[in-house]
User: What shape does this take?
Amino acid sequence: MSKKAIKPGTYLLPTPAVLVTCRDSNGKANALTIAWSGVLCSEPPMLSVAIRPSRLSHGIIKETRELVVNVPPRRSCARWTCAASARPRRR
Assistant: This one.
């Protein structure tokens, strides 16, 4: 099968793991690697991410209603995954 050229657009393919960052109301930063992300709409551009309620970031985002979705370049994926999993949630 030959390659198919796709014109530039608001795509997120192949679906990469993304790094979601957020800050709690005290300004403490938190990061979370997410494999469940996708494009909801091209115009206006909208992404979706799925975060378990048991994750620390879920509570922070629910409270502050703010987050940043970082899409890593392919060469940085291994480092991003390591960085986000370095500090497990304390119970």
Summary: Residues 18-78 form one domain.
